[in-house]
Amino acid sequence: MPGLRADLDWPGAEPGREEALHALLGGWLECVGPATAEGLAARTGLSPSAVAIGLAGLERAGIALRGRFTPDAGGEEWCERRLLARIHRLTLGRLRREIEPVSAADLMRFLFRWQHVQPGTQLHGRDGLLEVIGQLQGLELPARAWETQVLPARIARYDPADLDGLCLSGAVAWGRLATDPPPEENEVPRRPKAPTRAAPLAFVLREDLAWLLAPSHGVGDLPSAARAVLAHLERHGASFLADIARATGLLPAAAEEALWTLVARGLVTGDGTAGLRTLLKPDTERRPRRLRALRGGRARLVPAGRWALLRAGSDAGAEAEPMRFARQLLRRWGVVVRDLLAREARMPPWRVVLGALRTLEARGEIRGGRFVAGLVGEQFALPEAVEALRAVRRGAQEPETVVVAAADPLNLVGVLVPGARLSPMAHEVIAFRDGVAVETGELGAVLSRLTRRASARPAGA
């Protein structure tokens, strides 16, 4: 068709000639799939400038899409939109079929490594602590467990000074992410309680605090002292305990109680962790200091440090897009299944997260498929998590024993692995052997039983 090609190469395009150019290039794109402009020029005999003009018109009409669609593409490619969608669906299906599912026990063994609890995988120092907090942020765990069980399990030679440094530098914040909802109509109002050693608290990266905070339900029926302290913080910002007590006219002990009431409601936080640690001391250690404070002594329940509103700023508590939550789940678990949301009080419903995960899979950022056998619903994973999961399955089946606290996020008994659920508030631990829960109870008793098991096991078993 030399005459047609000559006419199409002519820059002064008539409407019929432009339509013919689009029909010619569109037909080739439907047949050959992803192709470069240079390749189409060679196939059609058109000049590169004419092909570029035609492809631009097809793009404006929504018929063709540009990008890099094949792994060995040397440059920008073009593909017919519907054909590209079909290729994409077939590719995702093939990738999903390539996955060989593992058992729930293998998933637990993977999670021990992914969250740095498996011996030999712990992180180190302040950088490691920042990574762990970024992985666990959004989880509200019993306050007493953070520095006694959760962080030391993931950080080798954990140093509390590292957490102080991250909080005081502004990199990390702590507090309750959710506030108590108002009582329903005709419901008897609940009596406000000060936080205890089991109060649910979270540590988060301060840059992510705004979207992780749940929308506030208001201050509710706060005691008068707590209202006075809250009003002072709203007017003057971050303040020391002595300044708060002086401005509100409260005794230091009463100001302390008011601060902890506000902490329990998710309204106030501290700029460090010294006050939090004091609260979490056993009652037998705190009571004498409290009595001295009430009698006018110098001892104080809360040591030096500033207190501030947790939800300060217009965007605090704003609804975050589901994509943020989906990415946080992937960072925390590596492999995301619906059952894991049983430990995720701050996450949106699964149907909301599912849409974001499907979008990430369509973009090629994550993998979808059947990664774990025996679990219902769609499953998704980071590419590096897929390789790590395969490595766990292929690894030597040497006996592996891991002990985690009931308050640990990896307390997934009754969620992923069989067994009766153990409350995160329980002062107990769970021993896993090769990813299967084998012992539950107090730490000393569990370790004693594990030792007896090991000594009774024949050599080489």
Reconstruct the topology from this structure.
Blueprint: H1 2-9, H2 15-32, H3 37-44, H4 48-60, E1 64-67, E2 77-80, H5 81-97, H6 104-114, E3 123-124, H7 125-136, E4 141-142, H8 143-154, E5 155-156, H9 160-168, E6 172-175, E7 200-205, H10 209-212, H11 224-236, E8 239-240, H12 241-248, H13 252-264, E9 268-270, H14 274-279, H15 283-294, E10 306-309, H16 322-333, E11 335-336, H17 350-362, E12 367-369, E13 379-381, H18 383-394, E14 401-405, E15 429-433, E16 436-441, H19 443-456
Parallel strand pairs: 3-5
Antiparallel strand pairs: 1-2, 4-7, 6-7, 8-10, 9-10, 11-13, 12-13, 14-15, 15-16
Helix pairs in contact: 2-4, 3-4, 6-18, 7-9, 11-12, 11-13, 12-13, 16-17
Share of helix, binned: 40-55%
Alpha carbon gyration radius = 30 Å
> Distance N terminus to C terminus?
78 Å
Total of DSSP H or I helical runs spanning 4+ residues: 19
Oligomer status: single chain
Describe the fold and architecture:
Helix 6 crosses helix 18 (383-394), helix 11 (224-236) crosses helix 12 (241-248) and helix 12 (241-248) crosses helix 13 (252-264). It is built from 19 helices and 16 strands. Residues 1-13 and 288-303 have low confidence and may be disordered. It has helices at residues 2-9, 15-32, 37-44, 48-60, 81-97, 104-114, 125-136, 143-154, 160-168, 209-212, 224-236, 241-248, 252-264, 274-279, 283-294, 322-333, 350-362, 383-394, 443-456; strands spanning 64-67, 77-80, 123-124, 141-142, 155-156, 172-175, 200-205, 239-240, 268-270, 306-309, 335-336, 367-369, 379-381, 401-405, 429-433, 436-441. It folds into three domains: 2-87, Arc Repressor Mutant, subunit A (Orthogonal Bundle), CATH 1.10.10; 125-309, no CATH class; 400-461, no CATH class. It has a three-stranded antiparallel beta sheet with strand order 4-7-6. It has a three-stranded antiparallel beta sheet with strand order 8-10-9. The relative contact order is 0.11. It has 461 residues and is an alpha+beta fold.
